[in-house]
Specification:
With 256 residues, this protein is an alpha/beta fold. It is built from 5 helices and 13 strands.
């Protein structure tokens, strides 16, 4: 699929370069800075605040509602993201407002819907508020996007100011179903690659994965009552690119 994207881009460039010469075009309007740089998709509301924003330091903690296991798990995922690149301990706390901290807060707010969130950044704290753990999760993804890109590193990086700009974001999805398809029938991907794909979908707030598992080029899921579908000599496993299939245990792991 990546090759197709490249071909399309090159094709468009070629067409534009071969266009017949004509009258001078009107000058293009100046490119304006996006309202919310780095936040994808663009949020419903984005406001810059005064101040330098929030900087993650050795003293930063994550405050999460200890009474909700889903929010606690999201807090653990956030800490696991921040620790390797910053080298900071980033402990979790069930309560407290001691600065500096990142707070994940469940609170009633019908305007946000099931997956919306509010993200407010000040000098002392980052506060993500939502009606549901799903909203908290998507707020964390926007926080992740606001940080320097080096936050995705798996090793500690010195001299990086781990700063989040002083902003207030209110966001909720326009569509309940936000999906992407991966065609593993024609082009087989490993379980590890599919998990990486799921991580990217989540980062960009997509919430549905469609795996295309069967076609004439390949049958990619184990059916124990039909073993020939995935046998090495079957029609579905030859002539269609890299062979392979997901065992039932592997597919259950992907679903989880």
């Amino acid at each position: 699929m990546r090759v197709n994207h490249i071909v399309l881009i090159l094709g468009l460039c070629t067409l534009s370069s071969c266009r017949p010469a004509g009258p001078a075009a009107e000058p293009s309007p100046p490119v304006r800075e996006p309202a919310a740089p780095g936040v994808v998709p663009a949020p419903v509301s984005f406001t810059r605040s005064s101040g330098d924003g929030f900087t993650i330091t050795q003293a930063t903690t994550i405050v999460a509602d200890a009474g909700n296991s889903d929010v606690t798990r999201i807090a653990e995922q956030l800490a696991a993201l921040l620790r390797p690149s910053t080298g900071f301990p980033i402990p979790l706390s069930g309560s407290g407002n001691a600065a500096p901290h990142i707070a994940l807060v469940l609170a009633p707010d019908t305007a946000l819907g099931a997956e919306g969130y509010r993200l407010a950044v000040s000098t002392d704290a980052v506060r993500i508020t939502a009606q549901s753990p799903s909203g908290i999760f998507y707020g964390v993804q926007s926080l992740r996007q606001l940080l320097p890109h080096q936050i995705e590193s798996h090793m500690a990086l010195a001299q990086i100011p781990w700063r989040v700009p002083a902003v207030t974001i209110v966001d909720r999805p326009r569509y309940a179903w936000r999906g992407a398809m991966l065609d593993v029938a024609r082009h087989f991907f490993t379980v590890r690659e599919i998990k990486q794909y799921i991580d990217l979908l989540a980062l960009y707030k997509l919430n549905v994965l469609h795996l295309h598992l069967a076609d004439d080029q390949g049958w990619r899921i184990e059916i124990k009552s039909r073993p020939k579908l995935t046998s090495a000599g079957s029609v579905t496993q030859v002539g269609g690119g890299p062979g392979g299939f997901f065992t039932q245990d592997e597919y259950s792991d992907i679903v989880r």
